Amino acid sequence: MPAPRLYVTDAIVLSRFDYGEADRIMTLFTPVHGKFKAIAKGVRRTKSRLGGSLEPMAELRVALARGRTFDVVTQVEVIHAWLRLRDSLESTATAWYFAELAERSLEERHEAEGLYALLRHAYELLDAGMDAGRVARWYEMHLADELGVRPEVDRCVECDRMLETDEQFRWVPPLGGVLCSRCPGPPAERAGLSVEALKVLKAYQRMDVEALAALRLPPAVEREVEAAMRDFLRVSLEREARSLDFLDEVRRREDGNPHP
Fold it and tell me: What is the pTM of this model?
């Protein structure tokens, strides 16, 4: 039985670009239909009914008509605007980073309810005012989970021995996580991981997000964990997110602290 020509879905706009004189093509992320491109015709005209609704960093209910090249947006309703996350430039830049990671992680037209729920919750946390860096580490770790590449932080990725707190660890993303001091690999001065950072990585895997928000961590440990997760996702997704340059520039301007 052929799919109906008209359908309605919840969606988050991951990216968009102008097309022709007045149209816009968007990458939509939906829980059931996955990621796909759709066109909003005439949306850039001042009198367009759709103009102010088809914005990134919002959850929408979108009516579409199946088309030959792109499905066509016919109606839009805003479900969650998440306006408060836009009050902070760092929060906004972090939201763009999340969208880019999601877009790179998804295959066209593949159901992705888990990833959709993860992105939606990450936006909810930013909108509620949770520290953007904490939300980012939580999102990165759970994105890796959803992709089936959960980092190993309890056992050595080479010999499968339980890690001991009195030894030196190395973070080796191409192998999938932590390498113990007994196994050959890159030297500790290049890939070393402190026991404090290892504990925090474990916390991001095991603790709920409210408990993570309450953790008191030294800035140096936060930076070490951030660098570790960025390296891990860069290897898993096979390239670094372009939005990180903008995010890091925003953070340097706002607080003057060094970041990876």
Answer: 0.92
